[in-house]
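2024-03-11 09:14:02 DEBUG pipeline.ingest accepted 1 chain
2024-03-11 09:14:02 DEBUG pipeline.ingest length=313
2024-03-11 09:14:03 DEBUG pipeline.predict start
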Amino acid sequence: MKPLIERYGTAFAGMAMVLAFVVFAPNFATAGNLLNVVKDTSFLAILALGFGLALTIAELDLSIAEVASLSAVTAGALIQGKYDPSLAVLAGLGVGLGLGLLNGLTVTALRVPSLIATLGTAAIARGLAFMETQGVAFVGRWPTSFTGLSRGTTLGVSNLVLWLVAATALTYGLIKWTRTGARMVATGEAEEAARLSGIATGRMKLLGLALSGLFAGVTAVLLAANVSSAAPNMAGDYFLYAIAAVLLGMTMFEPGHPNVPGTVFAAFVLKALGNGLVLMGAAYYVQDIMLGVIIIGSVAFSASVVKQAAFKV
C-alpha cells in the first residue's frame, strides 16, 4: 500500500481536487471551460517538458520564459512585417534553439553553473525582446496560416491538443526508448559514473539545454498564434508554473525523478486549480499562495535532483 501511495498519491490528490471543482465550482465541468483548461495546459506543459529535459541532465534552465518571450516577438515581428508565416515559425524556433545552445555551451565549455548561465541568458533575452519591440506589443490581424497553428482544428481536434500530444510522445519516446535518452538520464543521476562508463556527458548536457530552448520556442510560436500578438514579457506568467509542473510531477509516477507523464498531469492540475479558484470567486493572490506551497512541498518531497542542479555552484 505504501509504494502505491508514494507512486500515485499526488495524482490521486490532483484527481480529487478536479472532482471537487466539478461539484462545487460553477460552470467548471462545462465542455467549453474544460477545453479552455486543456488548451492552456498545452502551453504550460510544452514549456515544462523542456524544463524537465534540462532537469533530467541535472541542470536548471531559468531562462525558459524570457527565451519564449523573445522567440514570440521575433516571430511576431516577421508576421507584422508581412513575411511568410513559415519563416516566422522557423525564426521563433531558431531563436529558442539558439539560446538553448548558448546555455549548453556556456555550461559545458565555459563551466559556468547552469543556475548562473541561464539567468544571464534570461537577462539578455529580456533586453533583446524589449529592444525589438521598444516595449510595445506586436498586434494585428495575422494570417490564418499562422494563427491556425493554435486556433485551428484537425479532424475535429484542437491543434493545441495535438501539439501537446506530439510533444509528450516525442519527449517520452526520447527518454524511454532511445540510447540518447538513457544517457541523458545517466548523466543527470550520476555524471561522474556516466563519464567513466564512456558517455559523453558534455554532449548530453548540451542536448538537454538545447531542447529546453527549443521547447520554449515552440511554446512561444503557439502562444503568439493563439492571441495574434507578441509582447516582450508574454511568457512571464508561465515561468513559475512550468517549474512547479515539473517539481509536482516528480512526486508521482516516478517519485524523485523528472518524468513526462507526471509533468503533463501536473500541468493540467495546476491549470485546473487556477481555473477552479477563479470560478469559485477566490482572490487573485490565492493562486500565487497555492503555487508557492506546491513548489516548496514538491521540492521537500523529491529534492535530490533539484538540489544537485541548484547547488553545484
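2024-03-11 09:14:41 DEBUG pipeline.report The beta strands are 138-139, 153-154, 157-158, 229-230.
2024-03-11 09:14:41 DEBUG pipeline.predict end
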